[in-house]
């Protein structure tokens, strides 16, 4: 169970994401005022791993603006999105309405998902791309995922690789552009406090809550949490591409995503597990 301190930090994160939401909605990064293409946030291998979604009950945990949730709905899923930010859920509902898609959104902490969804079970739970770092307790998270899945249901996690998170995105004073290990790869050192005055998208400084806290989770911790919860891990992929250029010297690939010049390192990973 998260400690009282972890709970406090998660509430601070919730306030920070409420403050981020209007900046993200107006950003060029998400491009919500343009021709919305939610599929651009998915790698081709994700659709291969997810398989047929038409008529499936799919839950997207920590969905933020719900862009990926819309892509799942476009594939025929009965999609539900869940996020702890009230501002994000409101924006996601507006976006779904404008898109003409029938998607249900629920505001809740991911740890409360089983209770809030009143015991509903799903064929697929989808999550990732910047989600796990906001969870202090992966064992509890994995137990929640297991309870949300029907027997034979699948978790599909697509997350930024812990190596990427360990590399500093910006050089320090007097340093060159080389990527250096600035943060832990492995868990155990406690949360990292970040100044969230500016978010990862373009746009102005946030108004209001700017404190943000992240927890490190190595691949071993993720795998062990899921297997301890009774899930059977079927596939693990590592990818050297990201859906946006995190560093200036990244190059665009034929897929439309971005990778670093040589040497190749993993920047994203996906994991398929079955209950």
TrEMBL record:
<dbReference type="GO" id="GO:0032259">
    <property type="term" value="P:methylation"/>
</dbReference>
<keyword id="KW-0808">Transferase</keyword>
<keyword id="KW-0489">Methyltransferase</keyword>
<dbReference type="InterPro" id="IPR029063">
    <property type="entry name" value="SAM-dependent_MTases_sf"/>
</dbReference>
<dbReference type="InterPro" id="IPR013217">
    <property type="entry name" value="Methyltransf_12"/>
</dbReference>
<dbReference type="Pfam" id="PF08242">
    <property type="entry name" value="Methyltransf_12"/>
</dbReference>
<feature type="domain" description="Methyltransferase type 12">
    <location>
        <begin position="59"/>
        <end position="155"/>
    </location>
</feature>
<protein>
    <submittedName>
        <fullName>Class I SAM-dependent methyltransferase</fullName>
    </submittedName>
</protein>
<dbReference type="GO" id="GO:0008168">
    <property type="term" value="F:methyltransferase activity"/>
</dbReference>
């Amino acid at each position: 169970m998260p400690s009282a301190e972890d709970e406090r930090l998660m509430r601070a994160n919730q306030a920070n994401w409420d403050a981020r939401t209007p900046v993200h909605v107006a950003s060029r990064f998400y491009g919500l005022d343009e021709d919305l293409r939610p599929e651009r946030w998915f790698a081709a291998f994700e659709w291969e791993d997810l398989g047929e979604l038409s008529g499936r009950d799919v839950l997207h945990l920590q969905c933020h603006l719900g862009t990926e949730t819309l892509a799942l709905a476009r594939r025929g899923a009965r999609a539900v999105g869940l996020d702890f930010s009230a501002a994000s859920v409101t924006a996601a509902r507006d976006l779904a309405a404008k898109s003409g898609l029938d998607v249900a959104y629920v505001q809740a902490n991911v740890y409360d998902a089983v209770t809030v969804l009143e015991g509903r079970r799903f064929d697929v739970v989808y999550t990732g791309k910047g989600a796990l770092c906001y969870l202090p307790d992966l064992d509890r998270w994995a137990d929640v995922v297991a309870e949300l899945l029907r027997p034979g249901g699948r978790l599909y996690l697509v997350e930024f690789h812990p190596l990427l998170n360990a590399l500093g995105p910006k050089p320090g004073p007097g340093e060159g552009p080389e990527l250096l290990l600035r943060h832990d790869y492995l868990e155990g050192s406690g949360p990292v406090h970040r100044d969230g005055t500016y978010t990862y998208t373009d746009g102005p400084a946030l108004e209001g809550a700017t404190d943000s806290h992240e927890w490190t989770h190595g691949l071993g911790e993720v795998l062990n949490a899921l297997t301890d919860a009774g899930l059977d891990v079927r596939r693990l992929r590592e990818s050297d591409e990201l859906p946006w250029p995190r560093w200036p010297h990244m190059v665009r690939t034929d897929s439309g995503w971005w990778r670093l010049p040589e040497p190749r390192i993993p920047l994203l990973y996906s994991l398929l597990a079955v209950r």
